Every structure is written in C-alpha cells, then in structure tokens.
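[09:14] KT: can someone run the structure on this one? pasting the chain below
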Amino acid sequence: MARKAYLNRDTKETKISCSMNLDGKGKYEVSTGIKFFDHMLELFSKHSLIDIELKAKGDTHIDDHHTIEDVAIVLGKCIEKALHDKSGINRYGTAFVPMDESLARCVLDLSGRGYCVYNAEFSRAKINDLSTEMIEHFFKSISENLKANVHIDLLYGRNNHHRSEALFKSFALALREAVAINPRISGVQSTKGKL
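[09:31] RB: done, structure tokens below
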C-alpha cells in the first residue's frame, strides 16, 4: 500500500495544499510566503526522506501566525493519513542533531495521542521573517494533528539560525525512524492492537 496522502485546507486566513510520500527520497517543493519557514520545511523534508509538495497562501500581511499554524495542521494530518493503520512501523523515534555550537534532541511516539513538550529559547524575536515564538507553536500544532507525543529540546546553542535548524532536523530524523517499516513487526506495535 502506497504511503502517500494529499490534503487541502481553505479558511478565510489561509489556503494550503499538501501532498506527500512517506517512502520518498526527501524531495521538496515548498512555498509558504515565509522564507525562513520554507528553509526549515525544506530541510525537514530532506532529512526525514519524506517527499513534500506544499503551497500555502496566508495573511502574512498581518503576521506569520495563521500560516505557520495551518501548515503544521495540514502536515500533521497528512502524515497521519499516509500512515494508514500504522501497521509495521517502528512507532518510536529518537534523534540528537548538532548544528555547529547547537545541539537538539527529539524523542517521539506515534501513539495516537497528541502531546508536545517543548524546551527551547531564542535570543531574538525573529529569524529573518519567522517569529521565533512560532517555532514552539509549529511543533505543538503538528504534534496534535499527527496525534504524536513529541518531546523536543534545545540542549544548548548560541546562534538562533543554528538553534532552529537543529530542532527541525532532530524532529525530521526522529520521525524518519518512527515511520520506517520494520520487517520484524507484525501488525501494530502496541499491546492494545491499535494506535
């Protein structure tokens, strides 16, 4: 069964279309109108090996909040949809990612329950056109809609670009491990028989 999904989301604030392939090669075509956010989503695709085509048009003349939140909602729902019944997947993923002087850790569980623990701070309000407070909101929104437990921590770092990149890459690598099919797993990796 192909692990692909397509989703549209249209509101008065945003218009988003997304297609993805969990068994891709990390190819991406991303346009959100927020340049630094595009950069983070591109490296997320590249390092998760999830092919992503995503176009978002939002009310960025107001600020970046609605666009980033709605992109996270769409990405989370799209990944969850592509996982079908989650049969044969590892379910759990863990990654540490260094980015020069910064180090981030992500541990996640595709449990069917959305919850995010986020520990990261930034020393300025914006990185280019991305509000740093929206990085936390992105991870919380994607966790809820992916129905995953995501614990993501910036262990240390000074450069804000590096801090953000380490967070997104650690999430990408942990997710890559969690969604991978394990030939030793029969059915769903849960004593409940359902995730």
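[09:33] KT: thanks! The chain has one domain: 4-179.
[09:34] RB: yep, looked fine to me
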